[in-house]
Specification:
Strand content of chain B: 15-25%
Structural class of chain A: alpha/beta
Order of helices and strands of chain A: EEEHEEHEHHHEHEHEEHEEEHEH
Oligomer: heterodimer
Largest sheet of chain A: 6 strands, mixed
Number of strands of chain B: 20
Distance between the termini of chain B: 47 Å
Distance between the termini of chain A: 22 Å
Strand order of the largest sheet of chain A: 6-7-8-3-9-10
Number of helices of chain A: 10
């Protein structure tokens, strides 16, 4: 997380942000700052509050408690000008089914003075959809491409993406990824990407934010996050003897071998495990998705 | 915004074209069967005024739902609203398109048919019929706004908003005040739509203004619903007592048609001869027995007052009762034009206008200005009487002109037609009952040549009915006072008079009429909510149907008994306590709790019910905010 610059407000700033649906918490006392520029990936299990956070940021859900700002403006009362600088692509890629791409463009162009027709055409070409086709005649991939094109052609300062490749085939997912790479090029553009796809995170994200049950679990650069985790395989000791190991995130027994994941542990854990009775200990690096999985699958996490 | 407007017009163009075509065909068929507003289609005309407004309202509601229902899906709602425009402009764009489309579907065909009828048939379409065209748009737009509320508001009780357009169609505001009522309803629902039209619909629905705008119709319905339940409880109780102890109930209700002697209910429902026989039996003297024995029951007549409150000329809507004179040969009908204040002669077979008929005579010309108009017509009877505020005319078909049959004094208002009662003719004004000779002919200006002029023994506005019968060359007259109203029974009184041949009257009976049900059942709505009932009475006294309207005097004069006041106070305190408990249980914020408790006290149980329906069950837990638990790694 980049420290806040006093002259440039963070793209997103939340303080003790909470939201409940009925008596079910969606976000709990979330304090978060997302600096301007770069791609910020938000990951978490289903129901961890990612979509709610995006909707709060755009003012479509009023938080139950706490403060939330987008580009320095209170999300509860976003001015129209700020809304014009923020684009949102939802996971369902829903658009009015009775409109054609042409008509949608007409509508967006009239609303957004920053509309970039060339960029729109470029993106839509990648998905080979006809401008006269109605939305309800488009495939899911074509609709996703159209949604992304409509969002990016407004030249947003902040682009909010809620699982943009959900339910798409390999080709469409690849095309979306390419567009996102293109979208993240302008240095003053902030992309906030909610996703379950770790390859997207690894390829795109400058910062990784992990939410679980509405709470912030971690926020750092993906590589730095991944590097803090290590995987260990120990032989000759039972799982019950490693409970007191500091930094232990997960412990599983597979084929009489103890598989451990630790965070922020130096190599001297080898000695510690041997001291506990391990006959053989090997250490290996952990992939990002396994690190995230280890964090999110912790009991009570 | 203009782009949005165009998109919406394109989206619904087929639906609207189809609706307009169907509307046009139906209206045109109706016009072809007789005439849209004309005398030969009285039944259809009644249909126009009672069926079509409901159809227009339903069209508006359905259109509102059809246009906004897709946006209940949150992604589409976000697509619509998440743009650099204030939500109000988006609403104006969408709403503007809807108004244009609805104008094509509803008022345009109506205007077209009215205009063509006017063009083809001369001048018998009034200005007021064109007013109906504008009114139809107002009704449709009201329905449209209600449809938006029903679609977008997340409250389960949002359907209660439909009560407002329904009341709009039931009200009978006089003259141009009807537009004020329309304006209030449009503003009410429009404000609800505008207040709700924000990105987070759930949060908007919890804001004070939408809550208040939804709470009032709920409370209004609850007032009548609880009143009905109390009546039901009372009626069931009476029935149980009747069956259990063979006790005869003192009430009139669905299962008991027994009217106790000397009660208002008896006088209200009794046949006209029963009124006289019952009163004469109550007097119970030898003389009254003689009168009863010689009473000619077949010649007993009744006069029920009607009031011409304001000239109907240039009223925006043709809500008045049809006033048509039928010529004995059946060739012509004379339909009263409220714009021209004259009768238009209408050839029934050819369906064409053939001149005008006024006070001073008739003309073949299509220009009625050469003949004297009426002041305004209270009633046209089947025996060719035309009752105006000051006079009663009779149409002489042979001479094709009117003759004056009765002219009241200058300060009098005629409130009934002349009715034959034995060898007399009875006419009621707001000050006297005239019993004229049967061969009476009007001889002078404002000085009726009558055998008897009986001063009304009470306030004319409170007069329910007058019954006149003949007995042994005398007239027996019963006056019943006390108007049945929304507040149930006002002070009711019955007088029985005997009028001799010289016109001298003697009071045989003067009695207060007892109330049927007990006070708590009669004043059940007052007990439920005195404030709401008073507001309802005030509003309905201005815009209710004329025969049910209370006056200010009625409202000031109708003080409930102290037992009812005590019950109403107790009910309000209990409702406030229950509301306090409910708001605490549902963790309503402190300031809102105060408002709800005040509403519970002021509006009673209807206030509690509105709180119950509008305040959500699930509220966020109020624990200490815990810090976000991040991995302590930076």
């Amino acid at each position: 997380m980049t420290p806040s610059d006093l002259s440039v407000p963070n793209a997103v700033e939340t303080a003790a942000l909470s939201h409940w649906y009925g008596d079910q918490p969606a976000l709990q006392d979330l304090t978060l700052g997302i600096s301007q520029g770069g791609v910020h990936a938000i990951v978490g299990r289903n129901g961890s509050g990612k979509t709610t956070l995006l909707r709060i940021l755009t003012g479509f859900v009023q938080p139950s408690r706490g403060r939330c700002q987008l580009l320095g403006e209170d999300c509860r009362k976003l001015p129209a000008a700020v809304r014009g600088r923020v684009a949102l692509v939802s996971d369902e890629h829903a658009l009015p089914p009775w409109l054609s791409a042409e008509q949608l463009v007409g509508l967006q162009r009239a609303s957004y003075p920053t509309w970039d027709q060339t960029l729109f055409d470029q993106i839509v070409d990648l998905f080979s959809s006809s401008p006269t086709q109605r939305v309800d005649q488009l495939s899911r991939g074509e609709r996703a491409g159209l949604c992304l094109a409509l969002a990016l052609a407004t030249r947003p300062q902040i682009l909010l993406l809620d699982e943009p490749t959900l339910g798409l085939d390999v080709v469409a997912s690849r095309a979306i990824l390419e567009v996102l790479l293109l979208a993240s090029e302008p240095p003053d553009r902030t992309v906030i990407l909610c996703t379950h796809q770790m390859d997207e995170v690894e390829r795109l994200a400058d910062q990784l934010i992990i939410l679980n049950r509405g709470r912030l679990v971690a926020a750092s650069e993906p590589e730095a996050f991944r590097d803090r985790f290590s995987s260990w395989v120990a032989e000759g000791i039972p799982a019950s003897s490693v409970g007191s190991v500091e930094g232990l995130v997960r412990c599983r027994t597979i084929d009489d071998q103890l598989h451990l994941v630790t965070v922020d542990r130096d190599p001297n854990l080898v000695e510690e495990l041997r001291g506990l009775g391990a006959t053989r200990v090997t250490r290996s690096a952990l992939s990002l998705d396994r690190a995230i999985e280890a964090v999110l699958s912790q009991p009570g996490a | 915004m203009s782009q949005l407007l165009r998109q919406e017009i394109r989206r619904f163009r087929r639906f609207v074209a189809g609706s307009a075509a169907v509307h046009l065909v139906l209206l045109w068929s109706q016009a072809s069967l007789g005439s849209l507003y004309g005398p030969s289609s009285e039944t259809l005309n009644r249909g126009l005024l009672s069926f079509w407004p409901w159809a227009w309202l339903a069209t508006g509601i359905l259109f509102g739902i059809a246009q906004w229902r897709p946006y209940r899906r949150s992604e589409l709602w976000i697509f619509l609203l998440h743009r650099p425009l204030p939500p109000s402009r988006i609403l104006v764009g969408m709403g503007g398109a809807a108004v244009l489309l609805l104008a094509v579907a509803v008022p345009l065909p109506l205007w077209l048919v009215t205009w063509l009828t006017d063009l083809g048939a001369g001048s018998w379409i009034d200005t007021r019929h064109y007013g109906l065209v504008a009114w139809s748009l107002g009704v449709t737009v009201t329905g449209y706004l209600a449809g938006i509320v029903v679609t977008l508001t997340p409250h389960r009780s949002r359907f209660v908003i439909l009560l407002l357009p329904v009341l709009l169609l039931l009200q009978r505001a006089p003259g141009w005040w009807i537009l004020l009522v329309l304006g209030i309803v449009l503003t009410w629902i429009g404000a609800l739509v505008a207040a709700s039209f924000t990105p987070d619909l759930r949060a908007a629905a919890r804001a004070p203004l939408p809550l208040a705008l939804l709470a009032v119709p709920i409370q209004y319905l609850a007032l009548f619903g609880l009143g009905f339940l109390l009546l039901l409880g009372y009626s069931v109780g009476v029935v149980v007592q009747e069956h259990g102890f063979h006790w005869k109930g003192l009430a009139v209700h669905a299962w008991n048609d027994y009217f106790p002697e000397g009660t208002y209910d008896r006088s209200f429902y009794a046949s006209r001869s029963e009124v006289l026989t019952s009163a004469l039996r109550t007097v119970d003297t030898e003389h009254s027995s003689d009168l009863l024995a010689s009473l000619d029951r077949d010649s007993v007549v009744e006069l029920r007052p009607q009031w011409l409150t304001a000239a109907r000329r240039h009223r925006p809507l043709p809500h008045d009762v049809r006033q048509t004179l039928w010529e004995p040969t059946g060739t012509y009908a004379y339909r009263f034009s409220h714009d021209q204040l004259r009768f238009e002669r209408w050839h029934r077979e050819q369906q064409t206008a053939r001149g005008w008929l006024g006070v001073s005579g008739s003309t073949e010309s299509s220009d009625p200005s050469t003949i004297e108009p009426f002041e305004g017509v209270l009633r046209v009877t089947s025996d060719h009487q035309v009752v105006t505020a000051r006079r009663i005319y009779r149409y002489d078909s042979e001479r094709d002109r009117f003759e004056v049959r009765f002219a009241g004094r200058p300060d009098e208002l005629v409130i009934t037609p002349a009715v034959r009662a034995g060898d007399r003719i009875a006419v009621l004004t707001d000050q006297r009952l005239y019993l004229l000779d049967a061969d009476h002919r009007e001889s002078g200006q404002g000085d009726p040549d009558s055998s008897a002029a009986i001063e009304l023994p009470g306030v004319a506005r409170n007069l329910l009915r007058v019954v006149v019968g003949a007995s042994d060359r005398r007239q027996i007259v019963a006056f019943t006072f006390g108007v049945l109203s929304e507040r149930d029974h006002l002070e009711a009184r019955e007088l029985l008079l005997e009028v001799d041949q010289d016109g001298r009257s003697t009071v045989l009976l003067d009695r207060e009429l007892g109330q049927g049900p007990p006070a708590w059942a009669r004043h059940r709505r007052f007990i439920v909510s005195p404030v709401l009932l008073t507001l309802h009475d005030l509003a309905w006294s201005a815009v209710g149907p004329e025969d049910q309207r209370l006056t200010w005097r009625d409202l000031r004069g109708s003080k409930p008994p102290s037992s009812v006041l005590g019950l109403a106070t107790l009910a309000a305190l209990l409702a406030a306590t229950a509301t306090a408990w409910l708001t605490r249980r549902r963790q309503v914020p402190r300031r809102q709790r105060g408002w709800w408790i005040a509403a519970g006290f002021l509006t009673g149980w209807p206030g509690f019910i509105s709180c119950l329906l509008l305040m959500p069950r699930g509220q966020p837990p109020r624990g200490d905010p815990a810090s976000s638990r991040a991995l302590d790694t930076g």
